[in-house]
Amino acid sequence: MTEEKPSTQTHTTDRRRAIQRGAFWMIVAALSFTMMLFFVRYLEGRYPSIEVVFFRALAGLIFVIPILTRQGISGLRTNHFPMHVSRTVFALAAMFFFYYDVATVPMADATAFTFIIPLFATVGAALILREKVDGPRWTATICGFLGTLIILRPGEAEISIPILAMLLSAVFYAGSWLSMKILTRTDSASLIVLYMNVMIVPLALIPTLIFGKMPTFIDLLILIGVGLTGSFAHFCQARSFASADASAVMPFDFLRLPMAVGWGWFFFAATTNVWTWVGAVVIFASTYYIAWRESRLKSSS
After folding, report:
1. CB 167, CB 113: distance < 8 Å
2. pLDDT tens by residue, 36-65
3. Closest C-alpha to 192, from 224, 245, 227, 234
């Protein structure tokens, strides 16, 4: 008995430190994501969303090219190129609609709707990937969509084009997540991100040259900032999930909402409807329950 105590204490200490690291990276990710929203909102739709996507992908290459340069040509090989194309199309559409609505809706609303992406991913996993989704997970998913209805309040609030864009963005982001889930079985995360950005750059460049306009020097810095903060947010999220279970670090991801509310109020004098908070809490509680239950199932198997 006495010999097991140090081992148990060490395990508890290591787990606590892992959760602390995961929480730190998730908080930094939340801050970086909010900064990206601020940059897009600052542009106020002066540039087409496809142009914002172009600079987002171009800046994203900065994070992955050095990594793959060290791996050499062998690190670029993949046996699932069509799936990379599929993921790129989903990601391109998701970012296009997301940047469109962020430029016109409050930062808090845009943030709240990002919480429904895992719910669409759950439905997609069941219908497309044929994953087994049990009753409790379906119940949590349905509750999450009810939270979406609380925010939308159909019949009372106007369902505008930006709102529809937010929903479409969540659907396409879910498709991107599912594609990435398949690719991670064989390809590295850096390779997946590289293929996506490399393909998005030329795809977004053509319409940018046609419909875009030359940014001012300050706006150019802001556009680059969108790409850097967006890419850094994903990097931090990956580090967070690598450090600890998703159920342990996801509560810190919810900090994105109060951060967005604060930034929106301070910089743009934007107010937040109480229904946005209520709906966001319901949505987040549903996604958290799914992550918590999955972690429990994995630990018991």
Report:
1. yes
2. 999 999 998 899 999 999 999 998 888 777
3. 234
